[in-house]
Amino acid sequence: TDGYAIPYKDKITIRLLLQHGAGVFDVSNDIIPDTVSAPYAGQRYFYYITENQGEDHTFTFPELINVAAVNHLSYFEPGAAFHYSNTGYDLLGTIIERISGKRYDQFLQDEFLTPLQMNHTRFPYLGTDQDIPNPHVTGWLKFENELLELDKENVSIGVSEANIITTPADLAIWANALYATNQILNEELHAQMIAGIPTNEIHGTYGLGCEMHPADIGYGHNGTRAGYLTTMRYHPGSHTSYILFCNFMDFDEILAQLADMDNIVREAIQAVERGE
After folding, report:
1. Residues 6+ positions from 45 with CB-CB distance below 8 Å
2. Where is the Beta-lactamase-related domain (predicted)?
3. pLDDT tens-digit profile of 93-112?
4. What's the pLDDT tens digit per position in 48-67?
5. Cα–Cα distance, 193 to 205 (Å, whole number)
6. Domains along the chain?
7. Of 72, 82, 94, 156, which is least surrounded by CB within 10 A?
8. Is the alpha carbon torsion for 96, 97, 100, 104 positive or negative?
9. pTM above 0.85, yes or no
10. What is d(CA 66, CA 45) in angstroms, rounded to the nearest whole number?
């Protein structure tokens, strides 16, 4: 359809989308170029829409993908480079919904959360699904020398890439199932997932939805939302999963905070290897 007529669409593969090598413009993270003929040109699409249509607007896969399509936005020809793109994962979410015939959150519930008994995990789907279920830890964001208290957010703009609400215990279940066993992927697919390529971004070496950077702390992924940071790693040498959660984010020091979390994982791995 016209809404999915993104640049180079005939050259984009599922593998390239998973590995952020498809060149799909990241509508949710990057400022829309001011050269496009759209009212949101030169702005972040999320802020433009919530300011004009309300903070509980439900962002959809077609809507977000259409922004890249109608404005002919892309970073490069598929396979030419690496650029992290949540909108690429919106395309993957669309594929899942079309093949399964289910809404994305329901598919995850049926195929993963229920079988793995991840009973404290949910995936908000609508713009009105902003409240974090109780009990929960309040998030804090330091932004422009102001400390903001956050316990709700419209995450419908990140349905297939950034909208999980969970607990460290549930996330440890997921890490073990995905990385340490064949519950999710067989050995062949697991090997493909962790076969990373070097990138020119903070992600270092990146596989199929999987970071291998820094290499000495194993593989997994980081996650950030306003007021929250999370690191999930599996260290194959010690056969151990590590989950770190922080409910304070310094907007100007996010990378430094994530590096500190990596160091904590590193120290924990060393302690395990020493038998402590």
Report:
1. 27, 28, 32, 64, 67
2. 7-250
3. 999 999 999 999 999 999 99
4. 999 999 999 999 999 999 99
5. 12
6. 1-121 (3.40.710.10), 167-276 (no CATH)
7. 72
8. positive
9. yes
10. 12
